[in-house]
Specification:
The protein is α/β, with parallel strands linked by helices. It has 3 domains: about 10-140, Nuclear Transport Factor 2, Chain: A, CATH 3.10.450.50; about 180-315 and about 520-585, FAD/NAD(P)-binding domain; about 325-515, FAD/NAD(P)-binding domain, CATH 3.50.50.60. The protein is built from 18 helices and 25 strands. The strands form 6 sheets. Strands 1, 2, 3, 4, 5, 6 and 7 form a 7-stranded mixed beta sheet that branches. A hairpin with a 3-residue loop joins strand 5 and strand 6 (about 110-120). Helix 10 packs antiparallel against helix 12 (about 415-435) and helix 16 (about 520-530) packs antiparallel against helix 17 (about 530-540). The longest helix has 19 residues, at about 570-585.
């Protein structure tokens, strides 16, 4: 993405103000034809909750016109104005286009919203600024605004000693739920569950988070020893609490684990650790979940809640081991990568790692630096490989532009699928050039690489749920230098007592086999905890649906009162606001039935 500022353009602020005035007048008058004329033929309008109570994209003037006509009267958009406290309008080049981009605030019948727009700009025609991309988002529901900034709690009940209970005593009583049931129960205290709980608390929703591990943060703390985040700290700040400026660019997993624990405490979240969901049933008549949880001491608790959120991550946490001929005959130790902690215990031993995604490479590298006698890495299919720096950093470069993470998140949210896909294809071309020598050496070493589905790179593989990529933090060099031996699954016959027998008769010795073969999807967790009927009813999660929206994530599912929360910190930070708003709206009776408002339907994909 080219983010060089255009120096020759006159006053982006004036250009944006002129457009905003016209736009505000058009929406105030509900002039659907005039609104459509604001858009380029290849322009897009993305709406998140503000108009549609959905995540929807409308392509071209005709779809924009019809969608606005169907929703404008009910929504009552008004008081469109320059956004307060956000990045100023600026002239910029993105995707090969000269643009002016900016943020605006607006009001609706139920609350307030934030918008973002990219306007095509011709320096010779400063008044001619058609819309390429428009984003409208609901940001707050009136009466339930987040308790931040000037709206933060006063704390007078403690400072004026109005009660015999101090803050700590009140918090301990809150967390016990001895006198009430929560409105929302979130299953999983990883980043997604905690961030959503923080959003809900600030909107006045009584929320309980249950976590099966002993401590908040164990979902990271108990992973393999040398795990480090592969995207920069600047993209990973949490809502309300950014990371300290002293923290490193690349976060070790134990720093993040500790942060999750401190975040839960600082954000006053109600979390029960060592607690598992035993069962849940949705009562159609009462419109609530009846659930049973088992706590660490062995006691069970039954409770009711209006909304249940599965926040077990994109992968769902259940290891996918695969089937490998002869593995039962192997007399060494075989484990899934989720069970691997450190290579230190395997110094002087022989190891085989199956799988060439991030985990497979990281485990192999950890075993090598820990002094394993030999490390072999078995590749089962071509892998998308990018360097950590500069290639992987490019995908998050928008967070290094000097704007707030919240502004960058909205900018990211504005991208419709075709633009997102083209952007990643462009990025992949650039990174392939940066990594040309690395990829050439891997090819010479026999390692099979590819550039992702449709040449759209590793990020699109991630979003499609396909996996199969590696951000190189050093293992590629070990493979190239033959310090880690590369094996191809197509050359392997079967596992035997002492290792892996190849088709040529050689036996690769092994005391340890690590299966870095991935994890089941979040639908697997739904099936395990809520049963086949619910899992089949909602269908697959993650990856794109026919409207190019992530399937079942961060929005209503086919099962009333059930929501799925997952993704990396970036997605959790952005999408948690919208999911929390939908839950708050549902509790207040503001969330309409999906079929209550006609919307433009996109033809199903083949």
């Amino acid at each position: 993405m080219d983010t060089s500022i255009i120096g020759a353009m006159d006053s982006p602020a004036a250009i944006f103000a002129n457009w905003l005035s016209r736009f505000g007048d058009i929406v105030q008058r509900r002039d659907v034809s005039a609104l459509a004329r604001l858009f380029l033929a290849d322009g897009y309008w993305r709406d998140i909750l503000a108009f549609t109570w959905e995540h929807r994209t409308f392509a071209g003037p005709d779809e924009v016109r019809d969608a606005f006509a169907a929703s404008a009267h009910r929504v009552g958009m008004k008081n469109v104005r320059l956004a307060a406290g956000r990045a100023a309008p600026r002239a910029i080049r993105r995707s090969g286009r000269s643009l002016v981009e900016g943020y605006f605030d607006f009001d609706t019948e139920v609350g307030s919203g934030v918008g973002y727009v990219r306007l095509m700009s011709d320096p010779g025609k400063p008044g001619d600024t058609p819309v390429w991309l428009l984003l409208t988002t609901l940001h707050a529901i009136r009466g339930f605004e987040e308790k931040v900034g000037a709206n933060r709690p006063t704390g007078e009940e403690y400072s004026r000693i109005a009660s015999p209970e101090n803050w700590h005593q009140v918090r301990e009583r809150e967390k016990q739920y001895a006198d009430r049931d929560p409105q929302v129960v979130i299953v999983g205290a990883g980043q997604g569950g905690l961030i959503l709980a923080a959003r809900l608390r600030q909107m006045g929703v009584d929320t309980l988070v249950i976590e099966k591990t002993e401590r908040v943060g164990d979902v990271w703390r108990k992973r393999y020893n040398n795990l480090t985040l592969h995207n920069e700290v600047i993209a990973n700040h949490f809502p309300y609490m950014p990371f300290p400026e002293t923290w490193p660019f690349w976060l070790p997993k134990d720093m993040l684990a500790g942060w999750l624990e401190s975040y839960a405490e600082s954000m006053e979240l109600n979390v029960w650790t060592s607690t598992q969901l035993e069962g849940a049933h949705f009562d159609e008549a009462a419109k609530e979940w009846n659930i049973s949880v088992k706590r660490g001491g062995g006691e069970s608790r039954s409770m009711s809640c209006s909304h249940l959120v599965m926040a077990s991550g994109v992968s769902g946490g259940a290891p996918r081991r695969g089937t490998f001929a002869g593995l039962d005959d192997f007399q060494g130790t075989a484990m899934h990568s989720s069970q691997f902690k450190s290579g230190a215990a395997w110094a002087g031993k022989h190891a085989i790692v199956v799988g060439t995604g991030n985990s497979g490479h990281d485990v192999a590298q950890d075993l090598y630096v820990s002094g394993a006698a030999s490390v072999s890495l078995m590749q089962r299919g071509a892998t998308c490989v990018v360097s950590l720096d500069p290639s992987a950093r490019i995908s998050y470069s928008i967070y290094a532009e000097g704007i707030s993470v919240e502004d960058a998140d909205l900018m990211t949210a504005s991208l419709p699928f075709p633009v997102l896909e083209n952007t990643y294809k462009w990025v992949t071309k650039i990174t392939s050039e940066y990594d040309r020598e690395l990829l050439r050496k891997l090819d010479e070493a026999g390692f099979k690489t590819h550039s992702g589905e449709d040449e759209a790179g590793f990020q699109m593989l991630y979003l499609r749920g396909a996996g199969g990529y590696y951000i190189d933090v050093g293992c590629c060099g070990l493979i190239i230098d033959k310090k880690v031996r590369l094996l191809q699954a197509s050359d392997a016959e079967r596992f035997v007592a002492g290792g892996l027998q190849m088709k040529n008769g050689d036996v690769v010795p092994a005391d340890l086999v690590v299966l870095a073969t991935g994890f089941e999807g979040i639908q697997h967790s739904v099936r395990t905890l809520l049963g086949d009927q619910v899992a089949d009813k909602i269908g697959p999660a993650w990856g794109f649906d026919q409207d190019y929206v992530m399937r079942n994530m961060w929005r209503r599912t086919a099962q009333e009162g059930l929501w799925l929360m997952g993704g990396a910190i970036v997605e959790a930070r952005l999408q948690s606001r919208f999911l929390a708003l939908e839950i708050r709206a549902a509790l207040e009776g503001l969330l309409p039935d999906r079929g209550a408002m006609p919307l433009v339907k996109r033809p199903a994909r083949n």
